[in-house]
Amino acid sequence: MTATSTPPSTSSPYAELKAPTTARRLLTAPTTGPLAALLLACVFFSLSTDQFLTGGNFSLIIQQVMVVGTLAIGQTLIILTAGIDLSCGAVMAFGSIVIARMAAEGSLPPLVAIALGLVVCGGFGLLNGVLVQKIPLPPFIVTLGMLNVAFALTHIYSEEQTVTNLPGPLTALGQTFPLGYTDVTYGSLVTIALFLLLAYALSSTGWGRHVYALGNSPEAARLNGIRTSRLTIGVYTVAGLLYGIAALLLISRTGVGDPQAGQTDNLDSITAVVLGGTSLFGGRGSVLGTFIGVLIVGVFRNGLQLMGVASIYQTLITGVLVILAVTVDQISRKKAR
Amino acid sequence: MSRTTHLPSSLLRAAAATGVVTLALTACGPGSGAGSGSGSSSAGSGDVKVGLITKTDTNPFFVKMKEGAEKSAKAEGVKLMTAAGKFDGDNAGQVTAIENMVAAGVKGILITPSDSKAIVPAIEKAKAKGVLVIALDTPTEPESAVDALFATDNLKAGELIGEYAKAAVKGKSAKIATLDLAPGVSVGVQRHDGFLKGFGVEKGDPSIVCSQDTGGDQAKGQTAMENCLQKEPGINVVYTINEPAALGAYTALKAKGREKDVLIVSVDGGCTGTQAVKDGKIAATSQQYPLKMAAEGVKAVVTYAKDGKKASGYTDTGVTLITDKAQDGVTSKDTAYGLENCWG
């Protein structure tokens, strides 16, 4: 808790140190490196191809990262507690099939179907959290198991069929509205709003500080009176609900319920979290960093595509970026010690 | 204290970030692989761009397809952009690729849809922006979602090996195993149905003793065949969705010492598969021509760019039965021809 009392320290007698301190703090923020990488990539692609630096293209990039981005918010929460979630993509896929089938074939009102999808995904999150906390089991194992369960349920329930002819409200978030000369999808706004909301919750609420404390040291957190058990289960449940929202965004983006969806999204979301400077060891990082992380992936994919570089190079570069990001995290941890 | 120790790490981060972008610059610099190689040819006739989106970029079938498109693009003086899903069935990856290519201003997109239905809304959006969309190899559902389809007649491919198998068993009572693709995938269903038609049996005929999905994968094909032999040791005809599945089946049969007296037929005509026909592991295969699909596709986009004329309907890119043990009354070519025209 004492760590949060830094603002008063600026009123110290050494007022002349204030400016360098702020500058330093900016430099040392875990998001600075990723942000610099993102900006440099944008500059590079702007110089390389005329189609990159347009409002329409940026709207497109955000639209392309909104599904993995929303999953990555949940993933960030879990990783901040020193956990990991391998099941997020599969849970989302199951949620999307539930929503799509209930609305298209089960003739439920669309909003009820959406609510049901959120409940299902939230339920998976809750179950993950309970297994991790109460038995307790390692998050890696629990969510590896849940990945298979959700994947199988998706294919069983969908009968391997893509669900088409969805009612309008299900794809409403995929619709666009004009913003200046650019068409923006409503779903992009939802994702950005979720990022801002969780960024606020993590940085400015007691809950958020508890999440960081839990990730840094569960034992210390418990001794400080934090109800770590409830907190852990809560984090996994919130993550599950976020996967439910991602499911809706996925449906709105593709216009169908696709049982094959999301198969690499678990690793893609972890990639985004790591690229955004969040530590896999927990306790360090932010969702805004994750937002930068998903944008880095999206910008490289889009920019390289516009330049006509084959897609396998996008994968190659993403791999190198991840290793670099984790290396930086490790080295800076050692230095901090 | 902690601040001073943080500073170097931030420098490190900045250095890493710089390194990353430098790397990106190097990776994207001139002469870095296929993308920019084909890009340089755009200097010729203006800036017509053609997009090719395959299911994956690791399967030799799609590698050959890309090769065909690259050759054709070079000859026509247009720029080719390529993309692929991360795995077979990666619809979201293909949607993203379509969007990026439309943003890049392509005149036409050639696509092998990973999910025949799920890709349709994205294709419709591209078409609404005046982009010609042609499906290669795999039709969309509905087929009319694209402007045109350039593909193998998969029903006929199945029929050819069905007729061949029928002639080869010479009236012996057949016990058939079918190693299929996956439920609901049109290519697999058509080949399977074609085989039954060619063999002259109905769906659900008692001679079909075992049917298993393999996803077209060699290891899964082997497992499937092992299980089928467990169920019915007397199997003597094996239909396989593709040659990897056929080779998996061969391995399973060989382990039981049955490889000589069981007839394996397949579809694809890849070089490995055709070699397996020559080696006698597979009796016959229906060879298809991915290179031709892509080459014709690029030409169609160029025509559209020049005259505004859109390709339409279905174009059969042909299929040939390849075997070294020709049967009377079944037209076929030998493996010398097959190896000359194989892909992969």
Automatic annotation (TrEMBL), chain A:
Location(s), subcellular: Cell membrane
Domain of life of the organism encoding this protein: Bacteria
Keyword Transmembrane helix annotated: yes
Pfam families registered for this protein in UniProt: BPD_transp_2
Residue stretches spanning the membrane: 26-47, 67-99, 111-131, 137-158, 179-202, 233-251, 272-300, 306-328
Keyword Transport among record annotations: yes
Membrane topology of the entry: Multi-pass membrane protein
Main location: membrane
Keywords recorded for this protein, A-Z: Cell inner membrane, Cell membrane, Membrane, Transmembrane, Transmembrane helix, Transport
The protein's name in its UniProt record: ABC transporter permease
Source species: Streptomyces olindensis
